[in-house]
Amino acid sequence: MSSILSNIKTIFRLWHQYAKMDLLWLLRDTRYCLIQIFSDAVTALASVSAVLLISRKFGGIAGMSFEEMLFLCGFAVLIDGFILLFFGGNNIAYISRIIGRGQLDHMLIQPVPLWIQLLTGGFMPFSGSSKLLCGIVLTVISLRRLAFTVTPLWVLWLILNILCSAAIILSFVYVFSCCTFYAPVAAEEIAMVIHDLFSDTKTYPLAGLTKRGATVFCSILPVGLAAWFPAEMMLGKTPAGLPGITFYLAAALWCAAAVLLFRKGLIHYGKYSSNRYTGFGHR
Amino acid sequence: MLKKKRFLSLSEYTATAWLCATQAFDGNFLFVFAGYAVRMVRLLVMTAVFRSIPDTADLSLSQMLTYALLSSVLSEQLFLYTPATTALWEGSIINRFTRPVPVIGTFVAETIGKWVPSLLFYTLPVCLAAPLFGVRILPASAWNGVLFLVSLLLGISLSFAVDFIFAAFSMRMKNGCWAALAIRDAVTTLLSGSLIPFALLPKGVAAVFQLLPFGSLAGAPLSIFVGSGSAPQLIMLSVFWNLTLWPVCILYFRRSQEKMVSFGG
């Protein structure tokens, strides 16, 4: 019990430190930090513009009205924002880079468990907040247009779904990034590509797929689970004819797979490390 | 003498392109193949989206599927990146300045060389498999096919100009070059029509997007291929943007390279 409390304390202490460092970047290098914040906001809005324009023209697509599409896009940007804010810094969301460059050594010598470092090392509450803010604005607009009654319980459900979606995306990225333990050069940038899989595809509704296709996209290739499935669920629909529990089950299974494979990879790393580490950098 | 110099120069470009074509799998081969898989998944998602668009659309389902397929198989040509910005970030750009060929030419040769593996291992198999999935991979007519090739070449040329303008902009941004790249990515994806045909957007928006230089990168050649939009008008627009942006690109790049600072990343 005391170790759990101590871990929680460490997590908050580290979040506080990373927040301080992020604020210092904003204050000391304001111009570049603001450029970064602006570029994130532009990226977020551009990524949903195309699908929103189509749905505007046709009054909705794939069984979703324009307002529902707006909600889907808002939710998708919220997830991106959440991942950027909590895991965007220090390549935590792009773990294959850390492993492939041998930089995991830096983490393993720290007097803090690796999982806590991975949970806290990417925290950027100032420079990484623009996408989350865009997502909140889009979601609020969509809910107002849908005349949706928002209760505190529904907000908690929304947060739970954001956590699960982010967990699915990050787990999927980590599962593939585990290749880097065995092939540091060949897979160093694989996390970036896997992230890219979700970047624009998650804003599209997948109702046009066959039942089998939808099942694949909502399980082993979780593109549909990233935003479309939970968004439909929160709007009171049954996406792909699958029960809502599928989403939470998939999140748990993907997390378990990521932890299992990462541990296995770490054992390999413990024996062989990465031959790419050099005193003056990684390459 | 001049002829010999030109020949030598051409052979140097060819050698650079060949080198880049063969080195694609030297290191990050998993990254490269994962990239093909992601493009495939994106294509499947896009076809699912297009299948759910109402029949009232200005494009038929067959045209939309052809558009999506072509956009996917030619994505590296329609949405091209030269290694300019990455080289600037890594500091390796300095090597290009020591070579006896123009820097812009070297980047063009490198980019074209890098297309070869993708054309062999993604474009070709997907095009061959397209009929199995009921997607037509032929142009609307033979004439459309010819005009598509013209438009594609103009689009690629324009895409190089846009990329070098952004690279020059990145030189001025110094540490902010990745932010410049992210903005370029986001804006180009939306405005080029590489993902969504302009015909599916609201009329006013589509008209504006088509007139912008980005519209000639992907939207113009793909629309000509599937037989939507006025081909002569789209080609004239591409020619206009090429004639306008290339001088801007060369001038801006030359001026910006004087301000270049690169520490390596």
Provide a quick synopsis of the model.
The complex is a heterodimer of chains A (283) and B (265). Chain A has 283 residues and is mainly α.
Q: Determine the N-to-C terminus distance of chain A.
A: 43 Å
Global Rg of chain A: 20 Å
Q: What is the helix fraction of residues of chain A, given as a range? A: 55-70%
Q: State the total count of DSSP E strands of chain A.
A: 0
Shape of chain B: globular
Low-confidence runs of chain B (pLDDT<50, min 5 residues)?
none
SSE topology string of chain A? HHHHHHHHHHHHHH
Summed over residues and divided by their number, the pLDDT of chain B gives a mean of 87
Overall, the morphology of chain A is: globular
Strand content of chain B: under 5%
Helix fraction of chain B, binned, reads over 70%
Average pLDDT reading of chain A = 91
Query: What is the oligomeric state here?
Result: heterodimer
Number of individual domains of chain B:
1
- CA distance, first residue to last residue of chain B: 42 Å
Structural class of chain B, by secondary structure, is mainly alpha
- Secondary structure category of chain A: mainly alpha
Q: How many strands, what sense, and barrel or not for the largest sheet of chain B?
A: none
Q: State the domain count of chain A.
A: 1
Verbal overview:
The complex is a heterodimer of chains A (283) and B (265). Chain A is an all-alpha fold and 283 residues long. Chain A has one domain. Helices cover 70% and strands 0% of the residues of chain A. The radius of gyration of chain A is 20 Å and the shape is globular. The model of chain A has no long low-confidence stretch (mean pLDDT 91). Chain B contains 12 helices and no strands. Chain B has helices at 2-22, 29-51, 61-73, 75-78, 84-90, 93-97, 103-129, 142-173, 177-192, 203-211, 219-226, 231-257. Chain B has one domain (2-257). The mean pLDDT of chain B is 87. The longest helix of chain B has 32 residues, at 142-173. The radius of gyration of chain B is 19 Å and the shape is globular. By secondary structure, chain B is mostly helical. Chains A and B meet through helix 2 and helix 10 of A and helix 2 and helix 9 of B.
